[in-house]
Amino acid sequence: MKIALKTGLAMCISLFMIACEEETATTPRATITVNKNQFTINESMIIQFTGVADQVAIYTGDDMHNYDLREQSNTGFVVNKKLFTYSYSTPGVYKVVCLASTYTDGATDLKRDTCSFDVTVIDDRTEIERISCPRIIYDEVFAEKHAGDEWLMRLPRKIKSGNSTPAISLSQRLRFYIQSDSTKVYVNGNEYSSTTQYNLSEPVDILVTSDFGTTRPYKLYTLNYPEFTSFKLQGVEGTLVRNEYDYSTFELQVTLPQDTETSHLVPEFTTSSPSEKVYIEDMEQLSATSAVDFTRNITYRLISTLSGKPDMQAVSTVNVKITYQ
Fold first, then answer.
1. Is the same domain home to 211 and 235?
2. pLDDT (tens digit, 0 to 9) for every residue of the chain, 325 residues total?
3. Cβ-based neighbours of 104, under 8 Å, separated by 6 or more
4. pTM given for the model
5. Which domain does 91 fall in, by range?
């Protein structure tokens, strides 16, 4: 009887020890690799977890993710498949902490290990993504980017707005799109203001300075879309009709006598600038000289070219519509 009791007691002790062993968590090891320790804003930091853990969290060190403030509702990001990527939107030096945890199924034993490193984030953004005149009556008009950090703004001389056609001034506000709130912009030597009306009749010098201190110069040019200021067929003055949604497209309406022969007419016209060229397809047209067959659909192409910049042009198309009395 005593032997049986001793044997049973030994088995209970053995089972208890096995249970205790099963309730012991594996020792975690927080080790990681990172692609580098200096980044620009919005550049990806890539962390690979190489240690041992049942769960891994990364505290990135910025707002609401500071490991030292974890008791004050700051949280880490759970790492999935041992890979974590992150980018910072604000420059600074951040303490990145990796928290590796192991635990038993019943969470009766929890073990943790940490490692940390500092990353430096700089704001070196000097790239202008877009430039616009934010409000041409009710529209935002964007400039076109050219080589050598040069931009071209194309503006209408007038715009159709309901029943009126107000003239568009070359004194306009500007808007700059840059992926950084810390970057500063200077226009013609003065700090940029969103409420200032800038003179676009002359080239505009723009200097962008990053928070890190790097600078980048730009130049903004402006051209008006060319248009006919007068157009006559057989002495009859045409009417230029503007497109409310496309500033580069016009319709020219001319009403001729019923019996007018239109296969060989010589238009007389003037444009908004003597430097503007007028074409039908690839053939240059001269006022009071070039004969046109108006029995077919005629579309004029007007081209204004920036002086000394042959690749910077404003192009308009004018569709001629002839009706008869």
1. no
2. 444 444 444 444 444 444 445 578 999 999 999 999 999 999 999 999 999 999 999 999 999 999 999 999 999 999 999 999 999 989 999 999 999 999 998 778 999 999 999 999 999 999 999 999 999 988 999 999 999 999 999 999 999 888 889 999 999 999 999 988 899 999 999 999 999 999 999 999 999 999 999 999 999 999 999 999 999 999 999 999 999 899 999 999 999 999 999 999 999 999 999 999 999 999 999 999 999 999 999 999 999 999 999 999 999 999 999 999 9
3. 22, 23, 24, 25, 110
4. 0.78
5. 2-122
Name the nearest CA neighbour of 171 among 189, 155, 147.
Answer: 155
Q: Say whether both 158 and 110 belong to one domain.
A: no
Do both 62 and 88 map to the same domain? yes
Which tokens in the block code for residue 215?
A: 């600078």
- Single-letter amino acid, residue 253: Q
261 and 320 inside one domain: yes
- Token digits for 103? 């635990």
CA angle, 73 as apex, 70 and 79 as ends, to 5°?
65
